[in-house]
What we know:
Layout: H1 2-26, H2 34-48, H3 52-56, H4 65-70, H5 86-98, E1 106-109, E2 113-116, E3 133-137, E4 143-148, E5 153-158, H6 176-183, E6 189-193, H7 202-209, E7 217-224, E8 237-241, E9 252-256, H8 263-272, E10 277-281, E11 291-295, E12 301-305, E13 307-310, E14 326-327, H9 338-347
Parallel strand pairs: 5-6, 6-9, 9-10, 10-14
Antiparallel strand pairs: 1-2, 1-12, 3-4, 4-5, 7-8, 7-13, 11-12
Amino acid sequence: MKFAKIAVIKSLLLTIILLSSCELFLGPEPDISPPGILKGLWNDFNNIYAYLDFRMSHNLYYNDWHDVYYNDRYGYALRVNQNTSEENLYKECVNMLRELNDPHVGLHAPGKFQSSYVEDGEPFNLSYITPLLVNGDGKFTNFYYGKFSSANIGYIHIFGFTQDGTDPMLQTWGKAIDDIIKDLADTDAIILDIRNNRGGHIYVMEYIAARFASKQKEYLLSSNKNGPGPNDFQSLKTHIIIPANNRYTKPIILLTNKDTVSVSERFTIALRTQDHVTHMGTTTRGAFSVRMERPMVNGWFYSISTERVTDMNGKIYEGIGITPDIQVKYGNAQREDLQIKAALQEAVR
């Protein structure tokens, strides 16, 4: 009997040691209560979001990201308790993330809720432009192009830098730009329109940008967040635009608007390094980071900006956008694209 008791005691001690070891190596059980989910989400962004200082400097209601959660009157910690429903928890999490005003940030509850932050954009209607073109052609993925009937000026609209559902390294649709450039080779200038281009893949974008470059230029610096501290970033990576063999280097008018977002803004920075490019239209959105998706302990997942991007002078455009050399508003009550009109006038100078 004595030996049986000793065996039981040893077994209990071993169990305690094993449980302690599990906690030591795996960490404590995650808090999946509503306050725990909200705090975990806030903490993730506190540790790995790349633009807390820049984004919160434009917030009208909170001093910083710490204030968003801990403010003793309006902090999000006060809005959730143990009895908060899943739907209301989701709404409060979304509202908290919206304080960052970042279109790359979103929260998703598969099969239940989905949200991302997108400001109201600017109007754009390709149907205002197509009547001005001769031989307008949209047969290529993500491209519409032609020549203006009123002048020997080419037109190319790039809808985006990705093809949904396809690995970016396997996407070949961007190679159509070579045929388009050949078709427009005899024009005096091109209007390159990336209004309402919401980005895509860097690999595809740089392939296309190379067709409009006359000089090799370093155009962008990027660095990924790699630690919880505000200055924890990897070494800077330099991005270079390298002219392709087949390229268009006559005058180019680059058109942007507030719905020129993400990778299309990198495209804008790249082309602005080229002397033959004039940037017109309205200011871009100001969202440059690669968008990452990360899971949460309750089955939801969020997208987050973890990369800091600057131009070669170290200027950050996040939350501000890139202002054109020549600013032109979009249109008027006569359903006219005033940006195209101004771009044509500039192109024929």
